[in-house]
Design a protein that fits this description.
This protein is mainly α. The protein is built from 18 helices and ten strands.
């Protein structure tokens, strides 16, 4: 009787590989498997190398969500993956903070659903819910007269100053800020309701809902790009409409003259903010990011290479632009150089006054003892300055628009590329929108010229 064949001995060697999908939670859907087979004739070294190569491929698949794993991964699980593998790498901290606030609000409606099962109807239902009055879930509070009196007597921490200003102007703030302000002012938990009045039923604005749409669509587009789902369900529904509110974007030449005359009566530190924004077009964060090393008084140039940002509960920090266009050099006029020289002399005097208490950062614009400026400080001052002097309702960012419009008026539309560099725009199309403002200004001036030319004839006919 012939001997039995040892089949196990003749079978090729196999190895089972496993990789865990980040953020996919527990269960069978949280991992990927691959079985690799040793081909006949492979040396031990070749077999080891082949296994390592295949394991690397599997790990990369798992890192991207396991490829077409939408049938097993929920929206909440994907958000963890999106945050760790996309947001942290590609988005600025302030952008991530804003995105997460919106995504957390939407997660309640679709977080439990599998990515592959989310349909346009689910997204449509979600956006109907966003229009409901109590969707905010972040209870808002207003100040009572008792709190306003206390805020007038006592200071709050730097991070809470924006909330203080809002409350004094009958604005609203959230529960976290209420707690922070109570701590700053020594208000006990038993008495806080004497100082704050809760406001309910505040709906989201049309523009905020539109932002929710854009953020959710961008998240799903990443899932499509990673092959986790086949298509983006958000783009299949109608984009939320926003009724445009026409707001003056920039100052006219005459209003600029009025502004500069009014600034002569203000402190040099405020004038330096406005002059720099008006004659360079830098963004608010870039204004706070300027150091004295960035100002070349002899060469008459200003260098932009960083910006400041602030997040809730985090002190102001410096951020370097990710794109090449964000770093640039701008030619500056003598009028700005003169203001910055005067301001530097004043700042030197402040350093001498505070002595060891001065915190040297090298920044042009700082807090009173040298710390990084809070980004919203110039905005708040400019808002009060406009109201006090009856200036048009152009926000601080409107000074950037004003610079662009005046640049094109003086240099002509052919200078659009140079303006693109000054403004730090990555795309020419972003800069080209200022051509509309230039045309509006030119048309206004033509109308004024007609009035001036024929005013005597018109007066005689009356």
């Amino acid at each position: 009787m012939p001997a039995k064949r040892n089949d196990k001995k003749n079978k090729p060697e196999k190895k089972k590989l496993v990789a865990y999908i980040p953020g996919a939670g527990k269960g069978s859907g949280n991992r990927l498997y691959m079985t690799v087979t040793r081909e006949e004739g492979m040396t031990d070294k070749q077999w080891e190398k082949y296994r390592a190569e295949q394991d690397d491929i599997l790990q990369k698949k798992a890192k991207s969500g396991g490829l077409v794993r939408g049938e097993k991964m929920t929206f909440s699980q994907f958000l963890v993956l999106w945050y760790n593998e996309h947001a942290i790498t590609n988005l600025a901290p302030k952008t991530i903070n804003g995105y997460m606030c919106m995504l957390e609000r939407m997660e309640g409606a679709i977080g439990h659903k599998k990515m592959a099962e989310i349909r346009p109807m689910d997204i449509s239902r979600l956006f109907r819910q966003l229009h409901e009055p109590n969707i905010r879930q972040d209870h808002l509070f207003m100040a009572t007269e008792k709190l306003k009196n206390l805020l007038g007597e006592k200071e709050v921490a730097q991070k809470n100053k924006d909330a203080k200003i809002k409350l004094l102007r009958n604005g609203r703030t959230n529960s976290k800020k209420v707690l922070d302000i109570c701590i700053d002012l020594g208000i006990t938990t038993e008495k806080w309701q004497q100082y704050f009045e809760q406001v309910n039923g505040e709906p989201l604005s049309e523009l905020t809902i539109r932002h929710h749409y854009e953020v959710l669509s961008s998240v799903f587009s990443v899932a499509v790009r990673w092959d986790i789902i086949k298509e983006n369900p958000v783009v299949r529904i109608q984009k939320p409409k926003v009724n445009k509110i026409e707001r003056k974007r920039c100052l006219t030449s005459e209003e600029i003259e009025q502004l500069l005359k009014l600034l002569k009566t203000e402190h040099i530190k405020y004038g330096a903010w406005i002059y720099t924004a008006l004659f360079t077009g830098v963004r608010l964060g870039e204004l706070g990011g300027l150091t004295w090393d960035d100002i070349d008084f002899e060469g008459k140039t200003l260098r932009v290479r960083q910006a400041i940002q602030a997040l809730p509960g985090i002190r102001t920090f410096v951020k370097v632009p990710k794109s090449k266009s964000g770093k640039r050099q701008i030619d500056i006029p003598d009028i700005l150089i003169a203001v910055l020289r005067e301001y530097k002399v004043w700042q030197y005097g402040e350093k001498q006054k505070y002595g060891e208490s001065w915190n040297e950062t090298g920044h042009v614009f700082t807090q009173k003892t040298g710390e990084l400026m809070y980004p919203s400080t110039p905005t708040q001052w400019f808002q009060k300055f406009r109201a006090k002097n009856g200036l048009p309702d152009v926000p601080f960012h409107g000074l950037r628009h004003t610079y662009a419009t005046q640049y094109l008026l003086l240099a002509g539309a052919g200078a659009i590329r140079r303006l693109q560099n000054d403004l730090g725009h990555a795309q020419p199309s972003t800069t080209e929108m200022y051509l509309h403002d230039k045309e509006m200004e030119e048309r206004r001036k033509v109308s004024e010229m007609f009035d001036e030319m024929y005013k005597d004839a018109i007066a005689a006919s009356k």
